[in-house]
Please model this.
Amino acid sequence: MGVKVKLDPFLQHLAGGQEVVEVTGHTTGECLEDLESRFPSIKQQIRDKRGQLRSYCCILVNSESTYPKELTTAVKDGDQIDIVIFVAGG
Amino acid sequence: MLTKDDLTRYERQILYTSFGEKGQKRLKQSHVVVAGLGGLGCSTSLYLTCAGIGHITLVDCDCVELSNLNRQVLHYEEDVGEGKPFSAAQKLAKLNSSIEVTPVFKKITEHNARELIKGADLVIDGMDNFKTRFILNKACVAEGIPFIHGSIHGLFGEVTTIVPGKTPCLACIFPAVSHRQVSFPVFGVTPALIAILQVTEAIKLLAGFGSLLTGRMLYFNGETMDFTFRNLVKNPNCRVCGTKGV
Model:
């Protein structure tokens, strides 16, 4: 059993339409790296040129905000990471 | 008090059992602020007007441009160059002369946001940028006014209803969004659809029936025609509505 990453609807087409992807890692950052290695276009969407998480991208663990430890929050098997994108248009 | 004309105009929605004349009276007594008269705000204010909201305040600081006309349905070719609140108010007054529509041609800022929404029963998010959304969110929390958030990008959209003191606010969900303005793609249908959902929430909230998108974000994906939900969690340390907030 690994960690589940639930993708924002905005990102799902970058993962072949999947809503949930199972990954491995001990922290949110490690889990995201595993996800990005399998779906590189997700990395382009959620990271800036320096590799920092974009500010409109939020990381939740078991529905709770990880801010300001978006990439360093510890996770364990069975946890769910949500990647939430804030779209701003109107 | 509903007039004879009100009973005729709103006959078909008054027939809705859990709404009725009581619900219609509540809409007539309500004041709603529509913040932004772009794709979302045009459609929300149009349907709020149809529904018979007694007083609608329209706030925007921009003028109509030709590139707006693929989605901002209250602005016509002849309005290019006109202030958006005035352009919208003219159309809405023709649609329903029995309600009050107040155009406010102002930029919403940290300094004037609370004054602009003070006394309203509800604020509808029709903004096109992060910064003003967070200003409005903070002002609504401070004034205790419900805020119906909507935003879009391309064929994607989202809606949630924020009730201060009860639900997570925007800053609970997005604690550190930067204020950088970015141009976004959009089809006219996306803000129209999200706006209709916002007004559906507004009618239920003001009239007091049904269940709301409180503590939940509804997502629309127009590419796949999927509607999905995400439960939202209040952040006790939220900089706006938490213990350290306003």
